[in-house]
Amino acid sequence: MNDFTSATWHQLRKWAETELQRARVKNDAVGLSLTDTASLRGEIKMLKRFLDLPNEATRGVVVEPDE
């Protein structure tokens, strides 16, 4: 199980958010080839999936109430 409250996770999340913003700005640039655009879109998708890991870890988890 991953600890999404750790300092390491927060540093990685901040890095990924910065990279995502950089990739989005670059993707909006005029004059990119179709290959470059596709590559950036793939990078953006993977960064979004990475940032969604804490949510993914809890999806479908049923929490039983205490008795």
Describe this structure in words.
This protein has 67 residues and is mainly α. The chain is 67% helix and 0% strand. α1 (7-27) runs antiparallel to α2 (34-51). The longest helix is centred in the N-terminal third of the chain and has 21 residues, at 7-27. 1% of the residues are buried. The model has no long low-confidence stretch (mean pLDDT 89).
Please work out how many helical segments DSSP would assign: 3
**Helix and strand string, N-terminal first?**
HHH
What kind of sheet is the major sheet?
Answer: none
Uncertain residue segments: none
Mean pLDDT: 89
User: Beta-strand level of the residues, as a percent range?
Assistant: under 5%
| Helix/strand class | mainly alpha
Query: Percent of residues in helical segments?
Result: 55-70%
Instruction: Give me the Rg, rounded.
Output: 16 Å
Number of E-state strands: 0
Give the N-terminus to C-terminus distance in angstroms.
26 Å
The geometry reads as elongated
Strand and helix map with partners:
Elements (H helix, E strand, L loop, with lengths): L6 H21 L6 H18 L1 H6 L9
Report a brief summary of the structure.
This protein is mostly helical and 67 residues long. It has helices at residues 7-27, 34-51, 53-58.
